[in-house]
UniProtKB/TrEMBL annotation, chain A:
It holds the Pfam family Adap_comp_sub. InterPro entries: Adaptor_comp_med_subunit (IPR050431), AP2_Mu_C_sf (IPR036168), AP_mu_sigma_su (IPR022775), Clathrin_mu (IPR001392), Longin-like_dom_sf (IPR011012), MHD (IPR028565). GO terms for cellular component: clathrin adaptor complex; endomembrane system. Residues 183-450 form the MHD domain. It is found in: Endomembrane system. This is MHD domain-containing protein. One of its GO terms (biological process) is vesicle-mediated transport. It comes from Gossypium stocksii. Keywords: Membrane, Protein transport, Transport. The keyword Hydrolase does not apply. Belongs to the adaptor complexes medium subunit family.
Automatic annotation (TrEMBL), chain B:
One of its GO terms (biological process) is vesicle-mediated transport. GO terms for molecular function: clathrin binding. Keywords: Membrane, Protein transport, Transport. This is Beta-adaptin-like protein. The keyword Phosphoprotein does not apply. Gene3D superfamilies: Leucine-rich Repeat Variant, TATA-Binding Protein. Subunit of clathrin-associated adaptor protein complex that plays a role in protein sorting in the late-Golgi/trans-Golgi network (TGN) and/or endosomes. The AP complexes mediate both the recruitment of clathrin to membranes and the recognition of sorting signals within the cytosolic tails of transmembrane cargo molecules. Belongs to the adaptor complexes large subunit family.
Length: 451, 841
């Protein structure tokens, strides 16, 4: 049970504010914002998603730079409230097509209407876009998506996939297309976030894939859908330690450690033929989340060397090798590395044929940054950096710098080899043939090489 | 059209004050109010939007109330909704104006469109104006009977809103019992869920004053209701499922087969993508199996994978909430998670609050087989750019060392830290080495060699400096230049800002002096002189004390300051197990995130459905009615038996005179047990007898202040209990939460007692005859659980007891809490004697 719900902009302005029970004083938004902004004097630490000020519990989640906040005096389940906040954001996005400060401000009456139906007197009534459709009457004022920076999951598919309509996923579930008729289509996205830690000698210390099969349906008449996954998919690794790499062969079956499903998913035939059947509700939702620690081939190998090069000088060499097929291209790659505290200057030396790369030395936090627009599968890139120090270094340089971390997005590639074999839409008419988009993407979550 | 970006609280010159805009709006609204021109609804919409946007940013638009209400005569549902929102916002501050809206809201409640009926009813109930409640009863009554489930859903919440405005109106209209009927018969699950929420709130609030309400609240967790809800659980929305699961946590199944049935039914909820459902399910599993050790263990194994999946699949916020719960489980049963340690490795981009939890988890799961890897990983973090985390990683290494696993390798690592030449690493490592030496003195040789190389000038942090100085004093015989290092530190006495460091320095110089007198003498003199001149009271006192004791006798001084030490075996835990248990009982609540039981951060009325009352609630309070009745009777009689003031004083006087037996002043009261009670209760307790008076006497003498010593004859220490003690359940709960366990023991129950314990009531009557009253009881053979309380005679000092009797082992597990800790032992003796007589008398 919550008492208030509000959305604050990055600057702390109230965009929407709804008081459901009148138990928490009106100034809560200000108290909250000040607390979040000045959590620790040095500004180094982030405020946790839940905290208590004078008996009032504040919950918040960050979505596209906005703060979605709930307050209550009651000792409630935190995961319920945090999940609820996330869902409210998702419902609003379903309605508005794009979730941003601008779209919220333009549509705040619609948002109030939604909020009234989602929560009554602090109790959740429904968060299903489907159900809400029959209660909500305001038409969304659509914000021009093209003007917006490519943020959020829609953007990650845009490069290197010519046929894909990039704007489709920023389409509201209720707004009509300019042409009048809605386009029948369904999106199934397999999004995998990978975490890998390499030891200084290049061994894989830990690795994990956190995957989601996400669906967004614009099909009329709610037809049933069947999603078939790899037939040799197995779930749960028998006994023993989860990280026993020897037990999993490099090729062959896909073994998930564990997974969970959206409540609309029926698993009647899952055990037999790895098929999920569901009637997709409107809006965006995860069909299935899964977790995998089975060994996989990391898409990038990172080599890093730091050496003294004379008095008060050192050299860093970072090599990144893409170990995926050459028809695949990774994009928005960023490599970061903390340098010794006493570094005063860093001069960069890129390869002669380097295109679309930039380098930077962040003086304030002594970090080097190397950005690459894209990396084609099979290629290798090197960065050389000459460092100047302000003082003699006594200790081992490798203890003063690193680790190297990397972020990237690889569209149309997934490391787990989990696949949607087919996507079947059960509808009588033979002429009915909606667009089906099955898309894969791999992203770095925590991709770190120690030196 | 977009509302201005700036908010009211930071008005800038460009910000409209709102006044002229509002009067402008007023004019426009008035023009539109009567108009029937085509397209007028669109213009109204624009105006309404403007009004609402002003409202959101805090401009007072309440002056438009009349115009808004006039414009609301429309069939346009969007307009209506905006109008309702406006009215709901301002009705409370303008109750007179709110009356204006009643008419059109009541009319809308009879609209043929169920959407309008529902919306109007919701707005009507949201006005929160006390003098309008009479208008709510009618529409609510028909709303609850509406053929449309949306209207019923709204009406049920409306009942709860009415209850908060005027509880008596709500109860008098008999709404709670209508909700109860709906809950068990409505076809729509959201209606059912709303009934459940509303009834829980209403009956919990009523329970403190009404017997019936507390029975009704109990009935919510009765088998028929629970089974009814459980059997339909999959029809409920995910949020309503959480509600039902929360209720199930409070249900006490009668046997293990019931437990397994419930768990099998809920098994697939663990695969739900909504973390709230999974955690609520886990709480049910954990609670149900508390008394079944093996199954409880299996539950831990079973929930591991779903929890880990939630941690990695959810939003960062959700994953933090789940991780906190995982943290709690790991701390409770580290061995279950010892092979999953790699999941607790920190990722470089995680926020500090997540890393901190993970470090604690890594520390907890370290065992013989994984310590090496965990410590290696922790050492990586020690070089982390995030300095607070680096520090905590080093502390974690130290804690693992103190847990006694593979100390050998860890000591080497710690010593490497000392050589890392990062000041904070050195500082943390010094503190750790000190703790390590206190536990494993055998490592002194290796450590001292390294510590000796550290220049005290490079150590600035007080804690670290104190640690270094302690080691210099403690191991001065092994550290070649200890006296000289100490001497130079003493020379810089004035530059040392931390009193803690100066105190340590004094002690260290003393210790060094006992071991190497000729080398230290001058440093000692300087230290004592500086110490006595120190402005800090503690430093001054310690220096003076050292000085005097040295003058008295050096060997005595050595025995006092540097006695042979025993290695510390276990360092004290920061949190009591009582508090940890409490937090575990409140699984799936904020208590877990804050790592505090709820009474520490919420006031009582807001403790919510998870409150501790449930533990007592499980044990039916209804049964305790047996003893409530006589207590009340006694109280009534009390009025007739009121003593005159003089009589009261007499009683007091006789107590102070130390007579062992007091004449029970309740004389002929209805309590037939009274006379027996006092004789029984007067068991004296030799252990706690008169300790404190003697102690205070000694101190008075020592100070030589000439104050007369405490009364020479302390009052006798026997404990008498009040036969007519009264304590209401909520006070009991509050006290039970707040007080620490004073005593915990196992008492044998006589075979006759076990035989007599056919039903809890028998024991209740027996205990009552000893002035120990039962407040709640429950359970089934062989396990019976009782909560008792007793009060000290003529004082409001309470004793609270939790007593679990196992009839098959004939043992009772007793936990005693007391307002006055000093007498808890005496009470325990009393309690034991009373219990042991059960069945024999």
């Amino acid at each position: 049970m919550i008492s208030q719900f509000f959305v604050l902009s990055q600057r702390g302005d109230n965009i929407v504010f709804r008081d459901y029970r009148g138990e928490v004083a009106k100034g809560s938004a200000e108290i909250f914002f000040r607390k979040v902004k000045f959590w620790k004097e040095d500004g180094q630490e982030e405020a946790p998603p839940v905290f208590n000020v004078d008996g009032v519990n504040y919950f918040h989640v960050k979505v596209v730079g906005l703060l979605f906040v709930a307050t209550t005096r009651v000792n409630v389940s935190p995961s319920l409230v945090l999940e609820l906040l996330q869902r409210i954001a998702r419902v609003i996005k379903d309605y508005l097509g794009v979730l941003s400060e601008d779209s919220l401000r333009k549509n705040f009456v619609l948002v109030y209407e939604l909020l009234d139906e989602v929560i009554d007197f602090g109790y959740v009534q429904t968060t299903s876009t489907e159900v809400l459709k029959s209660y909500v009457f305001n038409e969304p004022i659509v914000v021009d998506a093209a003007r917006l920076q490519p943020l959020g999951p829609a953007a990650i598919f845009m490069q290197g996939t010519k046929r894909m309509p990039g704007t489709a996923v920023t389409k509201s579930v209720v707004a009509n297309e300019p042409g009048g008729r809605k386009r029948e289509e369904i999106f199934v996205d397999i999004i995998e976030k990978i975490s890998v830690t390499f030891s200084s000698s290049g061994y894989i210390l830990t690795s994990e894939i956190d995957g989601t099969i996400q669906m967004k349906s614009y099909l009329s008449g709610n037809p049933e859908i069947r999603l078939a996954l790899n037939e040799d998919l197995s779930i749960g690794r028998g006994g023993g330690t989860i990280y026993d790499y020897r037990s999993s062969s490099g090729s062959g079956a896909v073994i998930l450690d564990d997974c969970n499903f959206h409540e609309s998913v029926r698993l009647d035939s899952f055990d037999m033929d790895r098929t999920l059947s569901l009637v997709p509700p409107d809006g965006e939702f995860p069909v299935m989340n899964y977790r995998m620690t089975q060994e996989f081939k990391p898409p990038f190998r990172i080599n890093c060397l730091i050496e003294e090069a004379g008095q008060l000088k050192a050299e860093v060499i970072i090599k990144v090798r893409a170990e995926f097929p050459s028809n695949i291209t990774a994009n928005t790659i960023a490599v970061q590395m903390p340098l010794p505290k006493y570094t005063t200057r860093a001069s960069f030396e890129l390869e002669s044929e380097a295109v679309g790369q930039r380098t930077d030395f962040k003086e304030a936090n002594k970090k080097l940054e190397w950005g690459l627009k894209k990396i084609v599968g099979g290629s290798e890139h090197t960065l050389r950096v000459k460092l100047t120090f302000s003082q003699e270094s006594h200790a081992n340089l490798t203890k003063e710098a690193g680790p190297v971390s990397m972020t990237f997005t690889i569209p149309m590639y997934n490391v787990s080899r989990l696949q949607v074999k087919y996507l079947q839409i059960a509808k009588k008419s033979s002429s009915y043939n909606p667009y089906r988009w099955v898309r894969y993407v791999t992203q770095a979550n925590s991709y770190v090489a120690r030196i | 059209m977009a509302p201005p970006a700036q908010s009211q609280r930071s008005p800038s010159p460009s910000q409209p004050s709102g006044k002229s805009e509002v009067s402008d709006l007023k004019l426009q609204l008035r023009q539109l109010a009567g108009s029937r021109a085509p397209g007028v609804d669109d213009s109204k919409r624009e105006l309404f939007k403007k009004v609402i946007s002003y409202m959101t940013i805090g401009i007072d638009v309440s002056s438009l109330f009349g115009e808004m209400v006039m414009c609301s005569a429309t069939s346009d549902i969007v307009l209506k909704k905006m109008c309702y929102l406006y009215v709901g916002n301002y009705a409370k501050v303008n109750p007179d104006l709110a009356l204006l809206t009643i008419n059109f809201l009541q009319r809308d409640c009879r609209d043929e469109d169920p959407m309008i009926r529902g919306l109007a009813l919701r707005s009507l109930c949201s006005l929160r104006v006390a003098n309008l409640v009479e208008y709510l009863v009618g529409p609510l009554g028909s709303g609850l009977k509406d053929s449309n489930s949306y209207v019923r859903m709204v009406a049920v919440m409306g009942v709860l809103k009415l209850y908060h405005i005027s509880a008596s109106t709500c109860v008098d209209a008999d709404f709670p019992s209508i909700l109860k009927h709906l809950m068990l018969h409505d076809s729509d699950t959201q209606v059912v869920a709303n009934c459940l929420s509303a009834l829980q709130e209403i009956w919990s609030a009523e329970a403190s004053t009404s017997e019936e309400a507390s029975r009704e609240r109990e009935a919510l967790i009765s088998k028929p209701v629970i089974y009814y809800l459980l059997n339909r659980i999959k029809e409920f929305s995910e949020w309503a499922q959480c509600l039902v699961l929360e209720l199930v946590t409070k249900y006490v199944p009668s046997d293990s087969s019931e437990i397994f049935d419930i768990m099998n039914l809920l098994e697939d909820r663990l695969q739900h993508a909504n973390g709230a459902v999974v955690l609520a399910t886990i709480r049910v599993f954990l609670q149900l199996t508390l008394s079944m050790t093996d199954v409880h263990q299996q539950v831990y194994e079973r929930i591991k994978a779903p929890l880990l999946t939630l941690v990695s699949s959810g939003s960062p916020e959700q994953s933090y909430a789940v991780l906190s719960h995982l943290h709690l489980l790991v701390m409770r049963a580290p061995y279950v998670f010892s092979s999953d340690y790699k999941h607790f490795y920190c990722q470089y981009n995680e926020p500090s609050y997540v890393k901190r939890l993970k470090l604690e988890m890594l520390t907890a799961v370290a065992n013989e087989s994984n310590t090496y890897e965990i410590v290696t990983e922790l050492c990586e973090y020690a070089a982390n750019v995030d300095i607070p985390i680096a520090r905590e990683s080093i502390r974690a290494v130290g804690k693992i060392a103190l847990q006694q696993y593979d100390v050998n390798a860890i000591v080497d690592r710690l010593l490497q830290f000392l050589e890392m030449e990062k000041d904070y690493v050195t500082a943390e490592a010094l503190v750790l080495v000190k703790d390590l030496l206190r536990k494993y003195p055998q490592w002194s040789h290796d450590c001292i060699a390294v510590v000796g190389n550290i220049s005290s000038k490079n150590v600035q942090e007080p804690k670290a400096k104190a640690a270094l100085i302690w080691m210099l004093g403690e191991y001065s015989q092994d550290m070649q230049d200890a006296p000289y290092v100490l001497e130079s530190l003493v020379e810089n006495w004035d530059e040392e800002h931390s009193a803690e460091v100066r105190l340590h320095l004094l002690t260290a110089v003393m210790k060094c002096y006992f071991k190497r007198p000729p080398e230290t003498q001058s440093a000692l003199g300087a230290a004592l002189a500086a110490g006595i001149a120190d402005f800090h009271q503690d430093v001054h006192d310690r220096a003076l004390f050292y000085y005097r004791i040295l003058r008295y006798n050096v060997s005595v001084a050595e025995r006092v300051v540097n006695p042979p030490k025993q290695a510390v075996s276990v360092f004290a835990d920061t949190q009591s197990s009582e508090i940890k248990d409490r937090i575990f009982d409140e699984f799936n609540s904020l208590s877990v995130l804050y790592q505090k039981p709820s009474y520490m951060f919420t006031d009582k009325e807001h403790r919510g459905p998870l409150e501790f009352a449930d533990e007592l609630g499980n044990l039916s309070i209804g049964e305790a009615a047996n003893n409530v009745v006589p207590t009340q009777m006694v109280e009534e009689n009390d009025k007739d038996l009121l003593l005159t003031t003089s009589e009261k004083e007499e009683t007091k006087g006789s107590r102070n005179n130390g007579s062992a037996y007091t004449v029970p002043y309740d004389g002929s009261s209805t309590s037939v047990f009274a006379s027996q009670t006092h004789i029984e209760s007067a068991v004296s307790n030799p252990t706690s007898a008169g300790h404190s008076p003697q102690a205070s006497f000694a101190i008075d003498d020592l100070l030589g202040l000439g104050i007369p010593a405490a009364p020479a004859v302390p009052s006798p220490p026997q404990l008498k209990l009040n036969t007519k003690a009264a304590l209401d359940p909520s006070t009991f709960q509050q006290k039970w939460r707040q007080l620490p366990v004073a005593l915990s023991q196992e008492i044998s129950v006589s075979p006759q007692g076990v035989a007599a314990l056919t039903a809890p009531q028998v024991l209740l009557r027996h205990m009552q005859s000893h002035s120990i009253h039962c407040i709640a009881s429950g359970g089934q053979s062989p396990n019976f659980k009782f909560f008792f309380f007793a009060q000290k005679f003529e004082e409001s000092s309470n004793y609270l007891v939790e007593c679990v009797i196992n009839t098959s082992s004939a043992k009772a597990q007793v936990k005693i809490k007391a307002d006055d800790q000093n007498t808890s032992q005496a009470f325990s003796t009393l309690f034991e004697s009373a219990l042991s007589k059960f069945g024999t008398s």
